[in-house]
């Protein structure tokens, strides 16, 4: 059921992530999951935005995490998350911290998960780009920023995604979310909301219009760390790749 915020929400959410509950660490499936990703070091672009939420989810699945603010932070990471926040600010800070070129190069082959503003940054084109954000041009989609409305129109709902091993339904929070207006032929739609694509994948790139990191459900992150990260260039991209 769609929940419309009465007030503009902060980028905060429930703090009951599994890792914060020591009792749950005794459950074998939680322990196994934490082992499964313990060899990963995942970067999070931490110039601005809700990178702390992603950090908590990464810790919950046992992955190591590195906040990326400078070009040298890209060394020794396996993959990167570009979080939600404000793409106009990220755009400026990418240049100020001389990160644009090294990040673009890194993301050409490494797994990248862009959420919300992260989707704007990954896109090829931005429609009605009044703020003149320069996207990285990696993911073959065009978006319209704030396509789901302004901050006061933020809402939560569920989104069902087909990740190849059956469907999962996740809590999705749309906060000034980008709407996809064009999909390239190499882009696979993993989930739609009211007819519009909201979760897409192109080879090593995964991107959602919505925030999934605000809940304690890590299944989308696990898909990223598992199947998207397993993608090798030259192989065919499918949801099972
Ligand atoms: N509208 C913002 C932008 O275009 C994205 C908002 C978000 O990440 N929650 O940068």
Question: Brief overview, please?
Answer:
The protein has six helices and 13 strands.
Give the overall pLDDT as a whole number. Answer: 88
Q: Please give the largest β-sheet.
A: 7 strands, mixed
Which structural category do the helix and sheet elements fall into? alpha/beta
CA distance, first residue to last residue = 32 Å
- Placed side by side, the strands forming the largest sheet appear as 3-2-4-5-13-12-11
Instruction: Provide the succession of SSEs.
Output: EHEHEEHHEHEEEEEEEEH
Q: Over the alpha carbons, how many angstroms does the gyration radius reach?
A: 17 Å
Helical amount = 10-25%
Poorly predicted residue ranges: 6-21
CATH-defined architecture: 3-Layer(aba) Sandwich
Question: How much of the residues is beta strand, in percent?
Answer: 25-35%
What molecules are bound to this protein?
glutamine
CATH top level class name: Alpha Beta
Can you walk through the features of this model?
It is a single chain. With 241 residues, the protein is of the alpha/beta class. The chain has a single domain (3-228), classed as Rossmann fold, CATH 3.40.50.880. The chain has six helices and 13 strands. It has helices spanning 28-36, 51-60, 87-96, 100-107, 117-122, 219-228; strands at residues 3-4, 41-45, 64-68, 79-82, 112-115, 123-127, 139-144, 155-162, 167-174, 179-183, 188-193, 196-202, 205-208. The strands form three sheets. It has a seven-stranded mixed sheet. Strands 1-8-9 form a three-stranded antiparallel sheet, with no helix packed on it. The model is unreliable at 6-21 (pLDDT under 50). The structure holds glutamine. Glutamine binds next to helix 5.
């Amino acid at each position: 059921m769609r929940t419309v915020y009465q007030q503009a929400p902060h980028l905060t959410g429930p703090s009951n992530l599994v890792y914060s509950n020591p009792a749950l660490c005794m459950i074998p499936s939680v322990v196994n999951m934490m082992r499964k990703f313990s060899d990963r070091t995942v970067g999070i672009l931490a110039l601005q935005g809700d990178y702390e939420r992603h950090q908590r989810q990464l810790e919950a699945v046992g992955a190591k995490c590195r906040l990326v603010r400078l070009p040298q932070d890209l060394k020794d990471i396996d993959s990167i998350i570009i979080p939600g926040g404000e793409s106009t600010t990220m755009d400026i800070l990418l240049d100020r911290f001389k990160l644009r070129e090294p990040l673009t190069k890194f993301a050409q082959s490494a797994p990248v998960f862009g959420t919300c503003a992260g989707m704007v940054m990954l896109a090829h084109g931005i429609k009605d780009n009044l703020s003149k954000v320069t996207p990285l041009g990696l993911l073959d989609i065009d978006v319209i920023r704030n396509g789901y409305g302004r901050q006061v129109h933020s809402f939560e709902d569920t989104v069902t995604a087909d990740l190849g091993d059956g469907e999962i339904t996740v809590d999705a929070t749309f906060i000034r979310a980008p709407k996809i207006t064009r999909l390239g032929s190499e882009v696979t739609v993993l989930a739609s909301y009211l007819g519009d694509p909201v979760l897409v994948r192109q080879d090593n790139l995964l991107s959602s219009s919505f925030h999934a990191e605000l809940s304690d459900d890590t299944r989308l992150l696990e898909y990223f760390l598992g199947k998207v990260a397993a993608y090798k260039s030259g192989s065919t991209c499918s949801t099972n790749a």
